[in-house]
Amino acid sequence: MRRALVGLLLSLPFAAQAGVLRVETLQSGVDARLRGVSAVDAKVAWASGSKGTVLRTIDGGAHWQRMMVPDADKLDFRDVEGFDASNAVIMAAGPGVQSRVFRTRDGGATWTQTLDTSNEKAFFDCMAFDGARGWLLGDPVGDRYQLYTTHDRGEHWTLDDNGPPALKDEAAFAASGTCIARLKGAIAVVSGGAASRLHLLRDGEHDWQALDTGMARGKPAAGAFSVAAWHGGAFVVGGEYTAEKSPGNAATLKALNAKAMEIDTAPRGYRSGVACTGRICIVVGPSGVDAWDGKRWTAISDASFDAVSIRGNAAWLSGAKGALAKIVLPGR
């Protein structure tokens, strides 16, 4: 299948460090909005989205196979975690019973539902995994976010009674499957609405710490949308999704014991997803793709994407109208 290359040269200072980054547009064969994407390696990736859509590639993105999840054509799969070419977990987001989790062990040939909820106030937002351990975040029910945990790659889940405390009208965004992340030594959750905060639960501790991100807040559409591990801390992006081209927000937590976050120069617009390597972070949103090297922003593309996932030297991107793409990152 023919693929189109869409690329922009990076600015010279950044190019000297990272080489040239090109967005390679891929043909998904679907028109669903794909808010979930998971990189396994440079050859294998999974994507998920509206209309019960689940896709997998095993040849670097040249071909995408659509997986059929029984009775799920009306579900919106906002997040996916691919462990390898055979094993994956998908999360549907929506009010009450629409929020569900499914698991496959055979490359999507069959699926088993492993989590659901009868609570009409529940709304699943995002997942994060560290090996077999996993965490799923749901919007607050009462005064705490819902937090589910698994120790077997999503085969079984337990509702933890120690989700992050929430303020009135504070919530997470199911925009890219990345509102929760595993850091080195902690779990991180980002929020928006009434407050724009980074919630941290350090390993071995019971109490969550909440840090103000300094980002837009006070509107249901504004706040911190995505978090990724970055060096010894975290990198967070967001903005206001009803103002896609207005300057976005980005903030850095330099270390887990830091008492405050540092606001960096904003990307070009609202950004819904971020994924980082040891050298750079790739951030995506409806108005474009940018890279952050710890010192400066560089525009990569004006193409629209919702989510990004990195494994090794491959960054996989997904978005509206079946958009899929890949960026080959420079070697270490």
The overall pLDDT average reads 92
Number of helices: 1
Radius of gyration: 18 Å
CATH superfamily: YVTN repeat-like/Quinoprotein amine dehydrogenase
How many structural domains can be distinguished in the coordinates? 1
* Order of neighbouring strands in the sheet with most strands: 15-18-21-22-23-24
Tell me the fraction of residues in β-strands, as a range: over 45%
**Assembly context of the chains:** single chain
CATH topology: Methylamine Dehydrogenase, Chain H
Task: Tell me the distance between the termini.
Answer: 30 Å
Task: State the CATH architecture.
Answer: 7 Propeller
CATH class: Mainly Beta
How many strand elements? 31
Low confidence ranges:
1-18
Which range best describes the helical content: under 10%, 10-25%, 25-40%, 40-55%, 55-70% or over 70%? under 10%
- Class by SSE composition: mainly beta
Which outline best applies?
Answer: globular
The largest pleated sheet is described as: 6 strands, antiparallel
List its salient traits.
332 residues; mainly beta; Methylamine Dehydrogenase, Chain H; six-stranded antiparallel beta sheet; 1 helix; 31 strands; 2% helix; globular; disordered N terminus
Description:
This protein has 332 residues and is mainly beta. It has one domain: Methylamine Dehydrogenase, Chain H. A 6-stranded antiparallel β-sheet has the order 15-18-21-22-23-24, with no helix packed on it. It has a 5-stranded antiparallel β-sheet with strand order 1-2-31-30-29, with no helix packed on it. Strands 3-4-5-6 form a 4-stranded antiparallel β-sheet, with no helix packed on it. Strand 4 and strand 5 form a beta hairpin. The chain is globular and about 45 Å long. 54% of the residues are buried.
